[in-house]
Amino acid sequence: MNKEYNTVRTTSNEQSFLPINPFAEPTTTMSSTTNPNHPHIGDDDMIDIDFRNTTNEKLNSGVMNVDLVNTRYDDFQTIDWLKDLMRDRFRHRLLRAKTRQSFLNKILMYHDAWSGWLCVLLVGLSAGVIAGVIDIGTNWISHLKHGICLNAFWLNREQCCWASRNLQYTNVNTEECTEWFTWPQVFGTYKTGAGQFLLSYIMYIFWSTIFASFAVLLVKVFAPYACGSGIPEIKTILGGFIIRGYLGKWTLLIKSIGMMCATSAGLILGKEGPFVHIACCCGNIFSYLFPKYGRNEAKKREILSAAAAAGVSVAFGAPIGGVLFSLEEISYYFPYKTLWRSFFCAMVGALVVRSINPYGNGHDIQFSIDYSVPWASFEMIPFILLGILGGLWGAFFIKTNIWWCRFRKNSRLGQYTILEVVGLALITASIIYLNPYTRMSMSELIKRLVSQCRVEDMIDLCDYPNSQFVTGKSKGSVGLAGPGVHRAIWQLFFALIVQVALVTFTIGVKVPSGLIIPSMSIGAITGRIIGIITEQLAIQNPSFILFRHDCSKEENCVTPALYAIVGACAFLGGVSKMTISLVVIMFELTGGLTYIVPLMAAAMTAKWIGDGFVRGGIYDAHIELNGYPFLDNKEEFNLTTTAEEVMRPRPEQRSALAFLTQSTMTFADVENLLKETTHTLYPVVVTREQPYVVGQVLRRDLQIVLKSQKMHRYRLSSTVIQFTTTSEATLNSDFESDNQPEQQLTANSEVIRVGNLLDQAPIIVTDQTPMETVIDLFRKLGLRQAFVTRNGRLRGIITKKDILRHIQQMSSHNSEATYFDN
Q1: Are residues 347 and 387 in the same domain?
Q2: Cis status, amide bond into 598, omega within 30 of 0
Q3: Could you list the residue range(s) of the whole structural domain that residue 403 is in?
Q4: How many Cβ atoms from other residues are within 10 Å of residue 688's Cβ?
Q5: Where, by residue number, does the polypeptide cross the bilayer (predicted)?
Q6: In whole angstroms, how far apart are CA 561 and each of 20, 226, 335, 503, 747?
Q7: What average pLDDT does this structure show over 423-449?
Q8: Do both 247 and 326 map to the same domain?
């Protein structure tokens, strides 16, 4: 959007055909005797200061008009939702008014209308391509720890053995063929024994350490914001917070490469969560192709909400679940048109992933199941038990992980991020290689656990000597578990212990990491174990009251693989506290539409149990840990306080509120105020004796004006700065005549009018306004701050961080919480 489209300049001899836009793009117009060839001066590439339209008449009269409105936010600030949305409405009205002038302007109007759809289309395409490349690369790098396909090194183990005539499977269903060379075979050792195992063990640890070291070095050197899953920060950004560089191109590149290396290193983390961050990076980058979104932070968040939905869609092949995830868990401002654009963006991403086929199964989902057997009524008891265990697991993990992250943050361990990751990779690789179920990737493990046994399966989990398995809607015939099943249960139990212990210390290290797949893996292991136990109880006790009506001697009534699906849903729900979106993601992820009711029961139980111990999910806990100013619009507050008890300065405090007067402050007074305080904006009152609020001014605008004036004028200390326009000064002449000191100051001094800096529509509440009302104002209007008055006189100010600090104090009586300035 061009600057001339947003600022309508008028002189004293002409009338404006449109109302002056108080939320225009940054423009400064100065009337002074300056060199016409003087270059434009900028402040950090934020504004252009225009020294044209110089008139000697205004200079001789001692009055200078400065027009500037700043629309760019500093780092770690909160956006002004109201002003940004009003600015977009004005831009839209101006664009519609110009359509009557020419056909080209009408084309521009149509382009503006469909630019949002084009932007989300590009985001969906790019997110799908990046997701496909990451999935393929991760599979290849992960298998590199075990060996290499010498005839075609670019193939992973599964692809290498596709055309093999000597294909065999291990007891955990891992492919083995003559075309795939393990590292002992590469070094010439073909005999099985202690030497081969030791060499494989050493190479596994070596490659794991290399991949983890590469990932942490990339993050530390090139993009520190590429660590973690990014979902807490994305949630905060969509809430209106500015984090410069978090959605940049370097973060996108390093996170894409780093998550492949970190996942392939065998660390107990996943790559699916960071896809939300990657998709939002794409949304941020493509939004700058369309000034409607790139230059308006509030409108940009509509694109980011759609990108978050696409991130979940490409991660799991769940477009509907992605839209619901963005709506339920991530987005703060989600208008109706964003819902359709999110759906379109998620659909495009899922189609691209399906076309690339990174999973090699012909589907766009990872854990597709080929059974739809009905579940019995008595199975609701173990399903609810899994929900209870998932809620307990979520509470345990949130408390322990936050404790460890806080310890890392406040101790010397946080200074040695590279050593921490390398040491963790060494310990993890040394432990998980000894167990075949932890040796494989967690995605492969989940795929094994949610799959039903078939007649050709010769793995431990399907060791039922007296059973004949069939596919389709029929269940396997009755049979007792063999020694392979017992061995698999113990191995899965130890895998469960290892993953629970390691994931607590892994989530939060300085590598790209997600929590979704580890939680699902832990839940799938627990569910499969409980499923096998329930199956054997039903087989050995067919006349028990619970099994009497649903089980018979001819057919098994329990499907252990179903319990793995329900367990994955319950444990992920216990950690994230998601409900509706989680259930939809799970049935899209597996294709098990028949099992919605068990999934719903497990997810709701996990949330109820988890809420009894910990308020909010893991993402909310990390937002609070990092001190981000995020005000949840779904949370309810029952406070009995008033605005007077939260505002700054409080009545019992001796500090004075920093403010500006409308017409009585000199250049030196304003400059000293900016030096002594660090506030992002200042209220403007009539006079010190009559502190009636007339508006507010941003600190950044004042700094730009002072800097530009000092570079082109001299002897400014006694110059008066008036926050009025020429017309306002005329209308207020009667008031000035009653104020003799002010009139004398204006008459004997040069005046700089900065009326267009003044925002004359601040949000004001009285000091007796209940805090519940104030919080609703901040949440529903997206406010940055509100002024507090009594009988119209300014008494204080309330910002978002004041509200968050007050909520923290009321809930935990902890006043040490630190929030970023907004």
Answers
A1: no
A2: no
A3: 377-621
A4: 10
A5: 114-134, 201-226, 247-269, 275-291, 303-327, 378-398, 418-438, 489-509, 515-539, 560-587, 593-610
A6: 66, 35, 40, 24, 87
A7: 92
A8: yes
